[in-house]
Amino acid sequence: MTGRPHRPAPDDAGHPSDADPGKPLDADAGQPLDADAGQPFDADTVHAVCRHMNADHADDSLLICRTLGGCPDATRARATGLDADGMDFAVAVAGIEVPVRIPFARRISERAEIRQEVVRMYEQACDALGVPPRSAERNSRSRPGLK
What we know:
- By secondary structure, the protein is of the alpha+beta class.
- About 35% of the residues lie in helices and about 20% in strands.
- The chain starts with about 25 loop residues before the first strand and ends in a 5-residue tail after the last helix.
């Protein structure tokens, strides 16, 4: 799998770490990032974007994870988080859910940039598979949670 998990692995007892599940994690240390670490999106924004992606763009997330996430055999993908540097997904592969992180092309800091990066990832995934992306007009109408 490419990318790194948004949440750290469970401890020896099988429990997730005691990190706040609403905060992005430092992928290297497995610890919550604080607001001073340059993460511009609050928990409400992250939740709204993930809810929108999962409700309205589950097929797009799957396409992105199959191509850019290195999971060509994935059967399902759901957005689980994001920060200034990328988006996190839980991806079903062979009946097992695995974490996948897709990095953004650049560090972002504004909510409108989230939509730009998700559309870029979607178009890059379509290009990799040789399938035409939906029109930009349809994308802008169907992505209100990403505006």
